[in-house]
Amino acid sequence: MDGIAAFLAFGRKVKKLKRAGWLRYVHPSNVESVADHSFGVSLHFLAFSDSDLEVNGRIADRNRCTMMAIVHDLAESIVGDITPLDPISPEEKEEKERNAIQTICSSIDPARAKEVIELWEEYERGETPEAMLVKDADKFDMISQVVSSLIGIATIRTTQQKLNYTI
C-alpha cells in the first residue's frame, strides 16, 4: 500500500500545480490546475459517441483514451508545467518528463507501471487513434478554457461598467 500511496501523492501534486501558461495572463486565483485540465480532457471521452471516436476508419478505445488523458500530464508533478515559451527544447522536455513518469511509476506494481508508462509514451508519439484524439481533446480543453475566461472577463467588465454608470 505504501507504493500506491506514493503514486497517489504525485496525483495530489498536480491538483495543486497551476497551469503555467495561464499564470502569464490570468490572476493565479483564476488559473486551473493541471489536474483540472486533465479531468477536462478525460471528460471528453465520456461524452463522445462511437462515431466521434472514429479515426481513419477505426473506432478508438474509449477507456484507453480516458486513461491516457489522465496520465498525459502526470509527469508535471515532478518537472512542473513546461510551456512552449520556456527556455527548454522539446527533446529536453520529453527527456525530463520520461524520467519523471518512470519515477512516478517506480512505486507501483510493475505491470501497472508498464501500462502507465506505455500510455504516456503512446500519447507523446501521437501516432495511434487514441493518442490523436487525446491530443485533440487536450487542445480543445485549452481553447474552451480561453473562451470561458474571456466570457468571464467580459462579464466582469460589463458588470463594472453598469456599476460605474449607476453610481
UniProtKB/TrEMBL annotation:
KW Hydrolase (keyword) present: yes
Keywords from the named record: Hydrolase, Metal-binding
GO molecular function, one term: 5'-deoxynucleotidase activity
UniProt GO cellular component terms: cytoplasm
Hydrolase among keywords: yes
Record's catalysed reaction(s): a 2'-deoxyribonucleoside 5'-phosphate + H2O = a 2'-deoxyribonucleoside + phosphate
Ranges for domain HD/PDEase: 30-152
The EC number(s) this enzyme carries: 3.1.3.89
Required cofactor(s): Mn(2+); Co(2+)
InterPro entries, sorted: HD/PDEase_dom, HD_domain, YfbR/HDDC2
Broad class of enzyme this protein falls into: hydrolase
Function: Catalyzes the dephosphorylation of the nucleoside 5'-monophosphates deoxyadenosine monophosphate (dAMP), deoxycytidine monophosphate (dCMP), deoxyguanosine monophosphate (dGMP) and deoxythymidine monophosphate (dTMP).
Assembly: Homodimer.
Family the UniProt entry places it in: Belongs to the HDDC2 family.
Protein name stated in the entry: 5'-deoxynucleotidase
